[in-house]
Amino acid sequence: MNGLRVGITIGLHHVAETLWNNGIKQNAAFLADALRHCPQVSGVALINTTDIPITPALPWDLARYPTVTFDEAKDSVNIIIELGGQISAEQTAYLKQRDVRLISYCCGSEYILAMESIIFGRKLWGSNLFINQRYDGIWMIPQIANMSQSYFETLRRQAAQIVPFVWSPTFLSERVKDLPNAGEYQRRVGAKRLGVMEPNIDVVKFCLYPALIAELAYRKRPDDIEILQVTNAESIAKESLEFITLLNQLDIVRNHKAVFLGRYDTPTFLAENVDIVISHQLENPLNYFYLEVCWQGYPLVHNASLCADLGYYYRGNDATEGASRVIEVIETHDAHASWYRERQRALLDRHLPDNEQLVGAYAALLDDLMTRPVR
After folding, report:
1. C-beta separation of 210 from 195 below 8 A
2. Of 128, 201, 306, 314, which one is least surrounded by beta carbons within 10 A?
3. Whole-number Å distance between alpha carbons of 317 and 321
4. Sorted alphabetically, which InterPro entries does this protein's record hold (predicted)?
5. CA-based nearest residue to 227, from 259, 270, 197
6. What Cα–Cα distance (Å) separates residue 27 from each residue in 8, 136, 333, 353, 367?
């Protein structure tokens, strides 16, 4: 089983696609890095499943992350991990003739997306739904298991395995290298600038609870909070009467201490505008955003239970506890900011692609996969 050649699918939408619009392509790159450390693996490539041409304009090193078409990969791989682009029935049949193993790597909140598409009329697949029944395994990152595991298993007719979540500061470090102080948190005198950067595109990560937490902290310490900045919220702040009416009940809004902004690049926005990050999630208790914020040393007030040892954790939907953590940051964080950053990075080692335990887990998954017959 040595000398395995692995392909990981992505779906390009632009020849110079950004890595910061979602985590899927970063996920593929980080998984590729982890698999390269497995002793059975001789090579890993990214496989684009769309018609977008592969050019040097892509935002990653093509030597480090070789990127090819399906036709270029189909006769050389032993394993294809379907992550960011779907393999068709015809492509699956071809791979099976070659005894290629096909893995579904699940890293999105698919049950929630399906539910929202049905209830709210958001187009997702229409009449073109294809659920592959010939996967040789379903690998699923831990933060989506609670909501989506049975969804995957029932529709794909086999058991799913929870696999380690992989993250690396590779792309973050490249993005911040030209920022002052490499974009790391810097102590700043005066009232604190609060930042909320939820995507606000579904119920999983929405800005309302962070705004409530900021409000409760502001009521207790108004002189210590300069501003609340909510990104990815400009359209709802202009178009949603319910949002406008609801948020206008808050003192921090009435006193003109809150702004609702458009989309921003995370590392740059943090470096230029933020002292404290407030976050909230439903059924997504581990996320690249949390890891990026903590790696850079920013105090993160969050309720993500799978990384409760990072940042400043509050439980569930307890806005009062969240506000207490904000006040704790105001009172104590700057006294140990350098220690905090180093502590966060030490904790994040468990997710890095070269972590010995993580690599061992993926090596064991590959061994198990290759000892089972092709479906």
Report:
1. no
2. 128
3. 9
4. DUF2827 (IPR021234)
5. 259
6. 10, 20, 31, 11, 22
**DSSP label at residue 257:** -
Mean pLDDT by 10 residues, the chain (375 residues): 91 86 88 98 97 92 94 97 95 97 95 94 87 96 96 96 97 95 97 97 96 98 98 97 98 98 95 98 95 98 98 98 98 98 98 98 97 90
Instruction: Report the amino acid identity of residue 70.
Output: F
Token couple for 151: 């969804």
For residues 71 and 325, give the distance between their C-alpha atoms in angstroms, rounded to a whole number.
52
The closest of 61, 62, 68 to 85, measured between CA atoms, is 68
CB 351 within 8 A of CB 292: no
Residue recorded with tokens 């070269």: 354
Q: What is the pLDDT of residues 23-63, one digit of tens each?
A: 889 999 999 999 999 999 999 999 999 999 999 999 899 99
Which domains, from first to last, does the chain contain? 4-168+352-368 (3.40.50), 170-350 (3.40.50.2000)
Is the Cβ–Cβ distance between 52 and 12 less than 8 Å? Answer: yes
What is the pTM assigned to this prediction?
Answer: 0.95
